[in-house]
Amino acid sequence: MKSATPTHTSALTQLGHALSDGTRTRILLALRDAPARPSDLATELGVSRQSMSNQLTCLRGCGLVAAQPEGRNTWYRLADPRLGSALGDLLELVLTVDPDCCTPEGCTCR
């Protein structure tokens, strides 16, 4: 088995940081379907535009989302389409390993 390099560790830590916040996780899951504007994401997720801006800045800093200006709008998308598949696989794995771990009310793993 190949050992993890410091780069591997840093990359996964960065992903873990992004997923450690519920709003950021919801943004990533929403962007699996299609690119979106920050205002639309804020409305869909029920957060303020300022909060959405802060979370998108964090996700851009982590290299997980990319912004594409289009006229007066900016569209956000996953930085790599494989991220959408990876998130789906990770979600499926977590729910397979412990199907009772999380409910709409919260996770029992805390």
UniProtKB/TrEMBL annotation:
UniProt keyword terms in alphabetical order: DNA-binding
Molecular function GO labels: cadmium ion sensor activity; DNA binding; DNA-binding transcription factor activity; lead ion binding
Family matches, as PROSITE patterns: HTH_ARSR_2
Record domain HTH arsR-type: where: 4-98
InterPro entries: ArsR-like_HTH, HTH_ArsR_DNA-bd_dom, HTH_Metal-responsive_Reg, WH-like_DNA-bd_sf, WH_DNA-bd_sf
GO annotation terms (biological process): response to cadmium ion; response to lead ion
Name listed for the protein in its UniProt record: DNA-binding transcriptional ArsR family regulator
Organism listed in the record: Neomicrococcus lactis
Lineage: Bacteria, Bacillati, Actinomycetota, Actinomycetes, Micrococcales
